[in-house]
Give the backbone structure.
Amino acid sequence: MSDATADLSREANPGLFEHYSTAPGVFDEMRASPTVTRDHWRRLTRSLEALGPLEIGARWDSGRRILREHGVTYNVYGDPEGMERPWGLDLAPLIIPSSEWTRMEAGLIQRSRLFNLILSDLYGGGQQLLRDGFLPPELVYANPGFLRPCRGIATVNNVYVHLHACDLARAADGVWWVLADRTQAPSGVGYALENRTVISRILPDAIREDHVRRLASFFRAQREMLIGLAPRGRGRPSVALLTPGPHNETYFEHAYLARHLGFPLVEGADLTVRDRKVFLKTLEGLQPIDVLLRRVDDSYCDPLELRGESFLGVAGLVEATRAGNVTVANALGAGLMESPALMAFLPALCRHLLDEDLLMPSVATWWCGQSDELRYVLEHLDTLIIKPAVGVSSRQPWFGGRLSREDRDDLVALIRARPRDFVGQERVALSQAPVWRENRFEARSVVLRSYVAFGGDSFSVLPGGLTRASRDTEDPVVSMQSGGGSKDTWVLADAPEEKPEPQRDWIDSASSDRLLLGVPSRAADNLFWLGRYTERLEQTLRTLRCVLGRLSDEGAREGTGELVALSELLDRLDWASASAAKEYDDMRLQHRVLKLVYRSDIPGSVRELLGRVRFIASTVRDRFSGDTWRILGRLDADARTRPGRLPLASALAMIHNLILDLSAFNGMEMENMTRGHGWRFLDAGRRLERALSILSLLRACGQVGSRRADVLEPVLEIADSLMTYRLRHFAAPRLPGVMELLLSDGSNPRSLAFQLNTLLTHAREFPQDARLPGATAAVARILELQQALERVNVPAAAGRCADGECEALEASLQEISRELFGLGDEVNNYYFSHTVPQVS
Amino acid sequence: MRQVLYDITHTTAYDYAGGVSVSHHILRLTPRQTARQSPFTAEVLVDPPPAVVTSHSDYFGNITHFIAVERSHQRLAVTSRSRVGVRPAFIPEEEETPTWENVRAQCREDRSGQALEAHEFIYASPRVPVSDVLAEYAAPSFLRDRPILGAVVDLTRRIHADFKFDASATTVTTPVEDVFEQRRGVCQDFAQLEIACLRSLGLPARYVSGYLESDPPPGESKLFGADASHAWVAFYCPGIGWIDVDPTNNCIPSLRHITIGWGRDYGDVAPVRGVILGGSGQQLRIAVDVIAVDAGPEPQSGNGSQRE
């Protein structure tokens, strides 16, 4: 293609790349010179120019919406508002042509081979590399990443690093350098997949025309690889993904990968070691686990033999690997290879172990534990990056040239005192690529994280990766933690791939494996509470809507009696009890109710409950479909409405939306969730909560004295039974009719009787364990509750209450409430009790 | 060569408040073969009977048991019994040992066999820091060109003189810095302190876990640390090997010290380390008896038999 055509094409929207100019002295990914677009970028730039800024902007908005709906998040440590930060994705991909990728692939595979050989000498062999002087012993012996208990433990096929990630940067001369290796528990591969999912929706034609290589085959290979790691050829090996839990920065990805690969997501507390084997604690009992894909750092994986203070792991895991009963990927101890100082020794190690030259260079590294290197680092401090020599520290590295005089002196003193603890690394001037900013493209520095999977037979390299861009042109650091964005990465094929694969293919038999494994007790616990909190939220919303609707009604003056009664009902419900007892006043009531809508620091407020729903849903994220996640995402988005100038109207609109969102969530769960124990406990939680809230509503209603007639209609509205009542009675509500409809009418899905019937059906299906009285006890208690309800004789008791004698009814309802709370405790004790391990 | 035979019984018993559903423990309670000692018999008894008992040799070659009790229990008792023959330590003449500067230099250069192994013990480890303060404290013993044996024996004497044995002053997790500050502690503290001093000078030193004879021979006094498991220090002397010193008793361990094993610090060779599920509190009772039986015959070569 000639320069003329490139220039011609740009005329469609000349402004799009007008502001794209790379910093001097860096490699420009997109252009060979200020006027010449590189061949492999031409199709994309042309199609972007054809779209124009408005259309790009519109597509980009839809891309962001998809991310939000998928609930793609990234947790940022130490940022109170940053928990669950939305994932930053840029519209423009990084593009790598086929011929170049072939070379990179070879370099990455070689590096992975090399790393496995080094680890098998240090952990499995005689540490000959130390004896022969290829590695200084202190880089191993004084390295916290070297886990002594793991020495001598055989690994399947002698593989230690099953997933190896490399952070790559392209220097000014066009050569890719390895900035860092990730061998502990590399993150990002799930985000890379999600990025592709989004970009392929908003740039579908460009992806097709450019013959962008698909990512699916890598995940299939990774899944097969993991299954193949099962010890001693188990018939149907079971694999689980071990996560540190929802507070981890990349928890979204853990759940996403678990779902995509079809493996259960487990936390350390879900596992137990028995008879030197690893088991998953499920409602149905202990289920063996053969392979653990870990996202927990190795030293935290076993409090018995590794870090004693860790609660993220499982006691006895090292012994289970020693016995060869479980494979952990990456192997325990593999984090050792992340030490930056090792990079200085890789070229010689590669020649020694593979008899090959290192194909992909590491960034020039000087380990200060050697005197010449120390001198070099101190002399060239201004141009170097200083990092700890071993281990990966969460602290930012020092940029020699950016330090104040004082800081610089401190750093020099630090290095001189402990030279072995530091390395100096060359600062690679990162290459730059276009990122979309508002309505145009600008240049930002990029780093590419690549992934290699290896189980012992063949290597598979993700044809793509996670590209990260710096936040602004000046920022030397490219990381998600510091707020940069990510990019899709396109590796181009020479021709369309032979067999086009579906973009998100669900791997066969994924779901059957999961069924085989049963529901972890912790997941059932969380589902039960998710059921309770969503129901509690719904009830709260209905109550608030009932009050707000009347408050905002223009003609409400005459209905003031109803509002006063409602205010009393709220007091009885033990809600917003703040300004109780004082004389009724519209403004005060409004203030109380709005606080419950907008404030998140009040227990039981809409926002507080939403926070609980969000957190607890995130702990069982892997158990919900994408659609269900979209609904939960919408719930969150809808709750962000600000009070604005019309707080009542905005609150009402928001509540309407939230109630609809919740109905959609309930509908998804009713229609789409397999009727397994997970669903059963979710629904049982909801039924229990609904039964409790009916009771507290009716007890409050009974206690409202002289104004009772005024609360009956609101009570029916809150209990979502007003229509039913009207259809049956064609008259203003009366207490006996209301009580009957909400307590004993088994055909009303909002009645107590209905909840008890449903709970009974669930309890009869609860997992049976001969050792536990669980299910039988729950069934017995529900049967008793049903009898207690029958004994109440609702019409008669309500009739007496309407005449002013409410004590008997109140006593019966109170008793039933107490029994229901007991049922909740029982379920908790029998099925979910997780005890915390203690270390001595 | 003279040999003393010891019968050793070491019981560790936990009483748990509330039931413990599962417990896992790692034990390092069985004396290993060394240049000056040979185990004859060894057994580990666990009550209640564990679901799993296995043994392996750990990173440092110590005999390590893994036990798992997998049904509910309120009490766990681990008893280790062994019979070990101990011979006198070989103690070279001070002048036969290289200067300490020489040892430091050799350990940096030499990466063969024993010297590489010694390399493990030069650096800070989780419970043993290195620091200028500790190097300064050690300095008066490490005069220029002094043979290493003389220097270490002098440091051992000074620690013994400067620090007071006080079982109430520290716990198993008290950092070396605190021990140094308050000048009090028990054998574990003194051993880790001396190791920290030696490593701060760049010298390899390791932590030795073991036992002392409980009842002294007539005319000799009872040693500190005789009623529990004991700990001392070994330093590396090129050409000779590892030489033990006991800062708690200011002596070179010989016929009255029995070695279980060694590591970088207490954490590597804790006699019992466990994780329990359940239980709301625990009481620990430890009893150690080390009884000399009689002067035994010449030892058989190789390891003694082990039963589990």
Remarks:
- The radius of gyration of chain B is 20 Å.
- Confidence is low (pLDDT under 50) at residues 299-308 of chain B.
